Design the sequence.
């Protein structure tokens, strides 16, 4: 019998239950794998205490525990889950390698420009340079979205059937919700909608939303 899987999440998520915190990616992966898991909620203060720092040296969420194994970084955790359970990585070795490549592309190539834009909106709105900085950041986002849209084309998923690469990419693109940027590429908007329509995603979203509602 495998050890219990435990993840950490915000006790009171700053995204107000929108499913943008990175524990959502891990919840989704576990739901796709059909794996039970427990969630330990942590406050912002607890994230900086020694017990949590032993799991995540940068004092963030999510973390993942399975027996004596402790992991941090959402991409690494999703990869670990995907390696151990059918359905998130293809069986064919080359297709599997491509899926892993898309996981890395999501967090290393697409997410940084999106997070940069988000931080400008969140932290610099009252600054004199806000409009110029936002325009530059959105220009960089548009470049990446254009490239991704061209690659996706009319396909449902990035490389054949849905896999962990899509899970990570959809999670990243969701951070642009409300910006209007995704809607500039109808195929990307439809791609995100397909991800959100998956039953496993819906279960994961409902679980994280219940945490937010309980905290308010």
Sequence:
């Amino acid at each position: 019998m495998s050890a219990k899987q435990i993840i950490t999440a915000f006790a009171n998520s700053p995204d107000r239950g929108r499913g943008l915190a990175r524990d959502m990616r891990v919840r989704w992966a576990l739901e796709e794998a059909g794996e039970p898991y427990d969630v330990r909620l942590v406050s912002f203060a607890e994230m900086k205490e020694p017990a949590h720092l032993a799991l995540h040296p940068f004092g963030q969420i999510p973390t993942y525990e399975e027996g004596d194994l402790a992991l941090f970084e959402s991409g690494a955790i999703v990869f670990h889950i995907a390696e151990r359970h059918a359905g998130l990585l293809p069986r064919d070795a080359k297709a599997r390698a491509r899926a892993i490549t898309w996981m890395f592309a999501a967090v290393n190539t697409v997410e940084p420009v999106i997070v940069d834009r988000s931080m400008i909106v969140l932290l610099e709105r009252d600054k004199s340079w806000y409009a110029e900085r936002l325009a530059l950041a959105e220009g960089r986002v548009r470049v990446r979205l254009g490239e991704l849209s061209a690659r996706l084309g009319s396909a449902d998923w990035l490389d054949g059937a849905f896999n962990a690469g899509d899970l990570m990419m959809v999670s990243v693109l969701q951070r642009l919700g409300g910006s209007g940027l995704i809607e500039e590429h109808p195929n990307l908007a439809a791609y995100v909608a397909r991800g959100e329509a998956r039953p496993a995603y819906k279960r994961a979203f409902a679980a994280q939303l219940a945490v937010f509602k309980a905290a308010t």
The chain has a mean pLDDT of 95.
